[in-house]
Amino acid sequence: MRAAALLLALLALPACTAAEARGAREVAIDVHWSAFSTGAIEVPRGVPVRFVVRNDDPIAHELIVGDLGVQQRHEKGTEPKHGARPTERDLPPGETVETTITFDTAGTQFFACHLPGHYAYGMRGIITVL
Ligand SMILES: [Cu+2]
Fold first, then answer.
1. The pLDDT value given to residue 23
2. What is the model's pLDDT at position 22?
3. Entry pTM
4. Whose CB among 2, 123, 126, 127 lies 3.0–4.6 Å from 113's, allowing a Cys bridge?
5. Which fold has domain 23-129?
């Protein structure tokens, strides 16, 4: 009986390790003093990833997820409000916003805030899709 339990435990181990190595399915990010709490995250390809973003600041921010082209468009753009797309969300002051994104291809994506001056100040990070 004990041998069977040990065998089951060993069989389960590689599956857990592989899932962890493929990146997080829930990502918590805090915003404080116009800075994201992390600058680099890893997520798995092809499965929904839930972002839970808490804005601790008394001012608004935003979470824009996408490739470099998306980030450049938003940096130059004038869209004052977001919300319809899961990859483009407003972060009102003092609120926590959740959004779920599925990354279809492995590679590098970015997250950033493009309110005036915030990107240059450092509100950006890298998403590695594994
Ligand atoms: Cu911001």
1. 76
2. 67
3. 0.81
4. 123
5. Immunoglobulin-like (2.60.40)
